[in-house]
Each structure stands twice: as C-alpha cells, then as structure tokens.
Amino acid sequence: MPALKLAQRRPFTLAIDIGGTGLKVMRLSADGDPASERLRTKTPRPGKPAAILGALKQLAADAGPFDRVSVGFPGVVMDGVVRTAPNLHPSWAGFDLQAAIERIFRRPARALNDAGVQGFGAIVGKGVELCITLGTGFGFSLFVDGRYVPNVEMGHHPFRKGKTYEDALGLKAFERDGKRRWNRTLARAVDLLDRTFNYRILYVGGGNAANVTVKLPRNVKLIENVAGLLGGVKLWERERS
What we know:
This protein is α/β, with parallel strands linked by helices and 241 residues long. The protein has 2 domains: 123 residues, ATPase, nucleotide binding domain (Nucleotidyltransferase, domain 5), CATH 3.30.420; 100 residues, Nucleotidyltransferase, domain 5, CATH 3.30.420. The chain is built from 7 helices and 14 strands.
C-alpha cells in the first residue's frame, strides 16, 4: 500500500474481542474496514487476566501497527473496569482492563461489554435497537437513537421456568437441549424481548448464530460474528459510556 494512502487511513484501531471460548483480534482502518486478517486463538483456561492478556499480546503481534485499541469483554465494564465476568474467572472482578491494555500495548484504549461493541458494528442509529450474542453465554446490548445504554445485563435476568436467558440459550443449553429445542427457546426469547423493549430492530450475533434455523420476524437480523470486531472503531467516534 502506498505511504500516502496508508496515512490517509489512519488512525488504525486494534479491535479485540474477548470471548469465553475464543480470543479474536483485527486491525481496522479509520473508516472501520479490516486492515488485517481476523486472528484467533482459544481462550486460556482458567481464564484469568494475566493468561488472557498474555495471549492477546502474542495474537496482536501479527496484526500490524496500530494507534489505539478497542476491547469487547464478556461482562459488565464500567469506565474501563470489569465488574463481572461470569464465563471467565472471578479474579476479573474489579480489574482495570482498560488501563492494563494501555500498559501492555502503550496505546490509548477503550473497553466495553462485548455485545455493546458488536451492536456498534451493526446498528443504524435510529430508534430502539437491540443486539444479542449467542455464544458461551448470552450477551445483550441496548441502543436508543444510536446511543449505547450501558450495563443492562439481560443475560442474567429471569426468562422462564426459573432460568435466566443465559441458562436457556447459552452454549451449555445448546449442548443439553439440541438445536431444535434451543431454536424454539430462542423464538420465545425474541418474542419476549420484543414485548419488553418494542425494538425497531434486533440483531442476533455470536458464534451460535450460525445454528439459528427458526424463522425470525422481519425486524430480526442475523449478523456476522466479525461485527464484534468491526464495532471497535465506533468506540472512538462516540462519547465514552
């Protein structure tokens, strides 16, 4: 790529997606286009901060130079500090993820719930929009006219028969119930979320979105899992939540 064209595409963002089963990184140009391949490795077990941060540092070494970092994390993140990490390890509680990323990469960083980052990669910015992620757990984000509403943990909200959304639709539920029953449960969840939030659009992402076979309403859209990385640039275009 010619130097002038490269300069015009800066600043580059290293987008990180921390998942319960996989870690992903991708370098993005200033306009949000991929500037590297999506790189992936398994999430270390136990998923403690030091192990995950070490794996991310190794993964990012192959992504190319970058100017800033965006991180999607599977739990509540407030001002860059992790509050919950139900699918990783209890030692994440109170961990300043944003500051740790800045120390490791020596670049400014922003961190947000992973479903929030994925939503930023999908929303059109009009009315009430939701994003759910079907992976190890059940991620959720809410947007109103393009603005992210932080810390809404629907995944751990009661859903039905004494189970939370995550109990009923996370990876363990998929493996326990099988694809057909899991899809029926998903259809009930989509209907309940509609009646609760009256959303304009619901986006469905995450690794298990590939297993969705039930017919979805017209205002429910399946999105590519890469949206969890592509939304990283938007964290720098909007006010910090």
